[in-house]
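Researcher: For the annotation table, I need structure tokens for OmpH family outer membrane protein. Please keep the output clean. Sequence:
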Amino acid sequence: MKKNHLFASLSFVAVSALGMMSCNNSSPKMDEKPSQDNVSAGSAAGMKIAYVEVDSLMSQYQFCKDYTLVLQKKSNNARNTLTQKGKQLQAAANNFQQKLQNNGFTSREQAASAQAAIQKSEQDLQNLQNRLGSELDAETTKYNMALRDSLQNFLRDYNKDKKYDLILSKAGDNILYAAKKHDITNEVIAGLNKRYKPASKAKADK
């Protein structure tokens, strides 16, 4: 068994709908102070433009924080399960090797049967790894879709009054420069959090 690749498919990746892969508490520094009135966020060639900092959205939107914990828990549980079963398989393989060296099998058929059982366990473990990895990928995709829908639905309502022609996502250096007065991140995060109702609270309200 190639241990180096045993858990490769279970690395936790949180892919956001805005193209970010991780939740980061830091945001790129801007060289201008925030405008007191985000409603006046600017225009270019007659276009009214604004942007949202993805890092801040991912770290401050409660939905992102809640779902990140869910994905981390699923990933840790899967990793622990595979680690435990991997240790059991390694112990069985070591025991088989010792018995083989010490002539502990009464016949070749018995040795062959024991070896076949170990090979089957190894294949079962590989299948389990693939299944758990697929389940985690599916859960991450579900999260990404929910995040995208949440953000798009909010911006659709938010922009009825704001009337922006273009709202950009700013992640790292994908926008080389943007004046801080165009930043509507705080408004968007506040609005999203006001709308957000965790599943547990939603059930309680019903």
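Researcher: And a one-line annotation?
Model: Residues 3-205 form one domain.
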